[in-house]
Specification:
67% of the residues lie in helices and 11% in strands. The chain is mainly α. Helix 1 packs across helix 2 and helix 1 packs parallel to helix 3.
Amino acid sequence: MNNKIFIDSSIFIENFKGNTTAKEILEIAIDKFDVCINSIVFSEVLFKLMVLKSGKSILTIKSQNLISSLIKELKNYSELLLLFKVLEENKEVLNLSLGFIEK
């Protein structure tokens, strides 16, 4: 496919939480586009899933040294995210991001 679409972390997180609209958006994106993410989306999704899985804040998770065990428990999610094209981040991409935010 030549058409690419960038999926924000909120779509993945809402999908994992059972939001049907987010699920539909993700299914359409996967079916019709090359789905792209970046390292920020990857880390945001994993951190939010750690919070949802543990019921604790990220600071508590970190202070209780739970990150490694939670990452192991969430391995399937991280592997799923890595199936998508991961975009490099640079100054040009950040400037494009600002343009999209302003729209």
